[in-house]
Amino acid sequence: MHTEEILERAGRALPPVVSVQQCKNSLADSPLKTMNMRKARTRVEDDYLSKPFGTVLHEYKRVVRGSDENEPNEEATFVLCLADGKDELVAEYHGNVQKLALFFIETADNVDLTSNEGGGYWKALYVFRKHATEADDDVDARVKTRRRVVEEAAFDQRITRSSPLSNIAPEVILESHCRGKRKLSFSKNSKEDFQYSLVGYMTLFYFHAPFKKPKPGMVLRICQAVILPPYQRAGHGKSMFQAVYDIASGTYESKLRSLNQHKKSNGMQDEIVEINVEDPAPAFVCLRDRIDFELLKKSMRTKTPLLPSCYSGTDVMHQSFFTPLSETDTVEIGARGRITPRQVQIAFELLQLDALEQEMDQRGKGDTQDKASCASSLQKTRKTLEKRYRLMVKKRLLKIHREELGGYSDNKEKQAKLNELYEETFERYITLLGRNKKQ
């Protein structure tokens, strides 16, 4: 059968091709378009909160990227709020909002913020964008933004055919989300000076750990973290994570105590002794490692550094600089910083590697007439320091991968696997520090 005949027969079973441009022109001034735009504007207006949920912890500014090359970037104001899960309005609002998590978290489950299972309780940390009340002509721009949220969520790479939302249009999820919000505190005719739209959230679970060492107390667990697509890679996740540490350290204690609620419901009765994360994704692990590193580094410039002087008071070139943390010191540092012992080790290794790289940067800036000799000396120094650092990190990797490495009967295979684990760790550390791997 010739190609022409195949195309002719196939064409009989297909609908006729219609000019897309012709359709657009015919609908350009139609009443249907006007009606749809009116509905879209109404839905976008309904997506705004007249006031944020929970207690406003603080405000900050970020530059928001335009949706396309024709829309310029703009500076926007964002607010961080901590909401109590026992509040009925908060629980109802979050019940609708958390449906968006299914687009971004493969193992996402619905959370009942009113539950006190295991003697714990829930809170939600929200980030809202703060909008000045604007004229009706400006609302049309919000239609594009809302459409972009839907499209980016629908085509996000994390949604697979096996996803529970693979056969559900994203508009259905958002429409359900909006219906729930309209029952709450939305008002498109609000007299407030500002309106608020959701940027992202974290769910926080507080529970008591009576056998926690070195002292019992409350553990704060981060369970879910979601940032909507238009605001991703803008530092909002870092701001939320940092706010969790500030909550645990008591930075916002006065604001939280001002609420007319029970102390235990606000997490103020028991001291928070540790912050951990439930099944973090790889990107969240990197964020956590970076923040813990910055926490440790920042403390070194205070009067009460987290690291004992025996680990930080020596010169990088000294043999003792790359001494591994003892188990006792690791536990004590973790208790003071409210981070897990494993995170203490990672933050410490990042701190030592950062010091190594800074030392090499300073040596590379030195003036010398013999550049070849200087390069050779720098390379020799780097090899010496990296060898000491490598031995320090491998000691930790050998402990945490003891069972896996113990399965190798041949020492060469065992050493090769340990080298592989180290290279993966080293490359990740270099990336976290924002540096290129030195050859």
Give a written overview of the molecule:
With 439 residues, the protein is of the alpha+beta class. It folds into two domains: 33-279, Gcn5-related N-acetyltransferase (GNAT) (Aminopeptidase, 3-Layer(aba) Sandwich); 307-367 and 380-432, no CATH class. 47% of the residues lie in helices and 15% in strands. The protein has a six-stranded mixed β-sheet with strand order 1-2-3-4-5-6. The longest helix has 30 residues, at 371-400. Residues 154-192 and 260-268 have low confidence and may be disordered.
In short:
One of its GO terms (molecular function) is histone acetyltransferase activity. This protein is α+β, with helices and mostly antiparallel strands and 439 residues long. It contains 15 helices and 6 strands.
What distinguishing features does this structure have?
439 residues; alpha+beta; Aminopeptidase; 15 helices; 47% helix; 15% strand
CATH homology-level superfamily of the largest domain: Gcn5-related N-acetyltransferase (GNAT)
Strand content: 15-25%
CATH topology of the largest domain: Aminopeptidase
What structural category arises from helix and sheet content?
A: alpha+beta
State the separation between the terminal residues, measured CA to CA.
61 Å
Estimated radius of gyration? 27 Å
**Average pLDDT:** 80
Dominant shape: globular
Q: Uncertain spans, ≥5 residues at pLDDT below 50?
A: 154-192, 260-268
CATH architecture of the largest domain: 3-Layer(aba) Sandwich
CATH class of the largest domain: Alpha Beta
How much helicity do the residues have?
40-55%
Q: How many individual β-strands?
A: 6
Summed up, the helix count is 15
Widest sheet, order of strands: 1-2-3-4-5-6
Order of helices and strands: HHHEEHEHHEEHHEHHHHHHH
Q: What summary fits the major beta sheet?
A: 6 strands, mixed
**How many domains in all?**
2
